[in-house]
# Entry
Amino acid sequence: MYSLIHSAVIRGLEVLPVNVETDVTDGLPQFIIVGYVSAQVREAEDRIRTAFRNSGITLPVKRVTINMSPADIPKSGSFYDLPIALSLLASTGQIPGNALDQVMAVGELSLNGSVNSVNGILPITAAALSAGFRTVIVPAGNLAEAGSVRGISAVGVSDLQEAVAYLRHGTLPLSADPVSGSEDKSSAAEDFADLRGQESARRAAEIAVCGFHNLLLAGPPGSGKTMLARRVPGILPSLSEQESLEISTIYSIAGLLDPLHPLMTDRPFRSPHHTISPQALAGGGRIPRPGEITLAHRGVLFLDEFPEFGRRALEILRQPLEDREITISRAAGRFRFPANFLLLAAMNRCPCGMFPDSRCSCSARDIAAYSAKISKPLMDRIDLYIECPPVSYQDLLSDGKKSETSAEIRARVETVRSIQEKRFLDTPFHFNSEIPAGSIREFCVLDTEAEARLAGCYEHFRLSARSCHRLLKTARTIADMDGSEIIRRSHIDEALIYRIPDLPGRGPGILLKA
Amino acid sequence: MSQYVMHHITPESPLWPERMAPLPGMPRELYYIGSLPEEHTPTIGIIGSRLCSSYGHRTAEEFARAFASRGVQTISGMAVGIDGYAQEATLQAGGKSFAVLGSGADVCYPPGNGRLYDELCLRGGVISELKPGTPPRGPNFASRNRIISALSDILLVVEAKMKSGTNITVEFALSQGKTVYAVPGRVGDHLSDGCNYLISQGAGIAFSPEAVLSELGLVSSFSFGRETKAAEAGRRKKDRDLAADQAISPEERDICRGLSFEDPLPPDALARSLSLPVSRVLAALTDLVLRGYAEEPVRGLYIRKRR
# Structure
């Protein structure tokens, strides 16, 4: 007897419905799974056989054929156990065939019949809703995640028996309790108030966060670059509902969602170690999975010790920094992952770290080679560059004058964010850094004095067309922070401070006297 | 590929530098672009470390300018740092400068000095004993130094560490019978250790350009402190210009005066001492740099411009 149930396949971040068909006929007892399936899917046979026995369900001694269509899309993962088992039960008449209409099921079976949590529930449920399904049957552990999608009924089952009971009699094991996504912003334990000095670096960080500009911090060890970077999550602007859904989808597929708070309320902050492989950074695998740049989507990718990263890993960043997504081509197909992140990087200026202090023990060649590890095209994609000088003793022990707290900074960031929201209402972008080259003049209006300054500095600082565009976008954010719709000369002047330098190797280096 | 005309001479050529003729260990041929140093014009070789301080940078430029204004031509190695700064300043002051390279004369090394290379080809000369197209290699740089010293009447060391490539040039100069001058540095400053050591060993003390020029008989008298007075006058003039400049706001004027003529300052320190928001200081600094009142000798550090 033939039966059909629906499940899903995850391709990159895209979810497609899959039909799981089962046919049970007389013949030599066999269990065949076809439809371009991976070894993980094939293993379902043994899990299902044992789970059935331990749940008191008998599997008839017959020829069982299971097909997953469309058969030209590769399927992998363990979440087909439950749909295969349910389809098989429908074929043998143990659950009514029509009970499976408009039902999508995913879940992994344990040998004792219990249903284990799986990854990717959020996008699967959303796909089920948009494909017009009535119900999704998911592992009980994933119920909160499935429940966060409104408009479809999610049934969480903790074992096979519960699933069978639901499909036979409609008894709900547990009710899906849509978890409210709104919670207080988890106040980061690390606050900007703890950071001494570094006024200009703080300012640069605020500009970077306000307009989502990429920022490179340079300076000797111990000047507070990493400390500052770790405090950036605390001042990031809040997520819109759409952004939250986007990020949660990525994290669901990567299996990084908090099962109790399935909708992410904070922007991600990823800080991979510099030994990361190019594939781990960009995303990869036979069937590609999201990499760090995708996990940092709509958030911050922090690369500490920037020049220490592998050349191949760093150069991979070029295209996503420009296109804000990455396309990975493998034998299994082409996969597009979003990668619209704020690149926050920190570096020393030389191998010993002390340059430009005269205590630097590196040769001119060492220093040149160190900065040359970051290619010019990659440097060109960074909007803001700031030097972090060593912290003075006065700053370190200034108890009288407290530094600003993250909350104060975040309040300003939110104001600038709402200005940008209004500005980009009819456009697909959210932040000033995303303004495409063609629309720069539309959004960046300069007064006459600012125009004159821009013309004057273009030659003086030997700007390129790309760096000029970056300069204007940065100036746009600085003007927004100033509450000015028109970009004035002082905004251009400040933006120029953060321009990418000719690092030594591309120009002569000067040491400071001790 | 270089678009310049390459000349080739041997010791038999009438153009072969007279300064090199009597010396042992000289090359058997020279390639050059532009011209060779003029035979009867006083010539000073200016050398120093590649990584220098802003003091070394400033001194190299001031000395080179003073030399150029007295019609002295300069010779160096077109390296990053002191060499390049001195040669650039000579050309800017309308003087002639010549570079002896450790690569073929048609190979610009370091590539970052492309602009200087072009200027030298047009308004001075680029010289090498190596065949055109020879890539830059370590040992070649040490041996080209003997040509720098041979072509100079006086060798001036601006800033050098104790262990420095300039020592090689100094050794050559002494064995060739040239006078060596060194710019003194502060005690305890390892960027000047090499210079101070040379002075202790009997090198001339280059406390002002005139001190060096008097050796060549180009100035009859000079006095201690003249440099200091001239610098002081220059600063006062710069300050008067600043006060009279209508385009500068009072706040910017305060920020400019908060900067030092001597030691580069980070904007953070300036903002703290003036109790101003750092964003205003940052914007003002760009304006002051573009209007010629301040300089950024090292990225992120600012100093008042002296002239």
